[in-house]
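Form 7-S
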Amino acid sequence: MIEEVFENLVDQFSDPFTFYRELIQNAMDAGSNRVEVRVEHRPAEQRAVVDVIDFGEGMNQRIINTELTRLFSSSKENDLTKIGKFGIGFVSVFALNPEVVTVDTGRDGEYWRVVFQGGTNFECLKLDHPVEGTRVRLYKKLQADEFDHFLIKSRDTISFWCRFSDTEVLFNGLKLNEPLAVDSPCQVRHTRPGTEMVVGVTSVKPPPFGMYNRGLTLKESAQEFFPGVCFRIKSRYLEHTLTRDNVIVDENYHKALKILRECVRNQLPEEMFARIKSWLFDSSCFGKLDELLGEAAPYLSNYREGMAKKFRTMPIFPALHGAPLSLSQLRWASFFEGAVYLELEPNRVSSELARVGIPVLKGEVGSGIALAAQAVTGRSPLVASHSVAVPILRTRQTARRELSRLGTAIKTILKRGKVSIQEVRLASFDYPGSVVQKLPALLQPGEGVPIRLFDRGILRSLRVKPGLLLLNESHPLVVRALARSEHTPLLASFVLAKAALLNDGLPSETEACLVGQALKLA
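Output:
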């Protein structure tokens, strides 16, 4: 029966090298401030020898008999300073199929060597020399050409499970400990008794996380309960399951997550907004600002739930004209405009948009700023000069005589085609950065209003409020139509009326209606 239980316990360790984690964990529970792992190959014997040495409390004969050699026995129950509470960690050494395992240890003036012959059979020998702490030694048959893999696997396993350990861990003299950190351009550290965490923004989806007890890895994976946030948390409240592949979800687990949530909602955005504030008006830091906003985009998409309310009104997005925009300002501006605009440098379009109170962010499509803006508003940002036209109106005094002759007819044709306009005007479509030079005409909602070249819904419809018909003074169609206005005014009016609607895609029934109206006027 004992052998069957023993084999079942050994089999639970799917990776035999995880015995390092179990022994280092036991060393930490014994109060050792340093653990040394030594791995060597003895060519003459064709075997590897592994030593795991700690400088903790050690064991006397009573502990050896009641805990080390007795399955499932442990004194760690209900002690939040101990993480190996199941009392079976030592069994993991046999998952490696060693020939022999020895344990040298001492306590209370007693010094012992326990020799395991590859299974449940063991012998306890009294030593005549003192031993500090505990040394576990494994002997395993291993060919020389297999040792390099064994050595690398040993180091990688220890590094994975123990690199954030509170206890110093040495592997063949090399320290493996690393500071607790995450891969993020903006991260914060929060500590309180028994708990340390590092939290940062990330564009990785789903974001990675790690949970540790005194630095020993309990679980590393990806999560979705904190969108856009990567974190590592060491806490006495976290414990591993019996199988060592997950974290026990209990009252203590929720205590740890409550601390983490507070950090995500308050301390992380505090640090992020402080950095952004210091970069917003420094052109040399624009690259840093763009990178941070790009990494923070998934986090910002959840800003109403993911961060404290006070951060919604803090400036974060650089504008080409005027003050930077807050999360709330950008969201509302995009709602009313139906778009988010970007430009790297000021131009006529950005200036005109700013004049009528429409913000243009400093950035380009695909940049970090664009990604962040899309995350906040739910809209793909547009290049302002590619999406909005601002033709230069000619004054009435300089308008051509031919246009004044055709204006009334054009208005009448369009009105009977269910499009109302106030006036027909000439304009220059050829301004710096223009994308409308080749268009014959544009419909403008009102004088001085930038013309959106995309569907804005009801705000764009001229059926709500009549606007202006702007004719491109240098377009060949407009030039020829105006030239023939005296001899064929109705034809010229129809051509210009049709040109006004070409940009929107002219349905055949609308075109037929316009032709009919022109014929009626004849």
